From TrEMBL:
It comes from Pseudonocardia cypriaca. It comes from the Bacteria. Residues 20-33 have a biased composition (Basic and acidic residues). Residues 7-19, 34-45 have a biased composition (Basic residues). This is Uncharacterized protein. Residues 1-45 are annotated as: Disordered.
Length: 45
């Protein structure tokens, strides 16, 4: 069994990891999603 760092690196390079990253980036750019996250964690902006 590899180290956690190696397993995360392998996952990040996989197609599933790339899809997850793309989804997260798209949501990070969405103003509605940003507002929802800010509200949940009590941050302004």
């Amino acid at each position: 069994m590899g180290s956690l760092k190696n397993r995360l690196s392998k996952f990040a390079k996989s197609s599933k990891g790339k899809k997850l990253r793309d989804t997260a980036m798209r949501k990070a750019k969405d103003p509605k999603a940003r507002a929802k996250i800010a509200k949940k964690f009590g941050k302004k902006g």
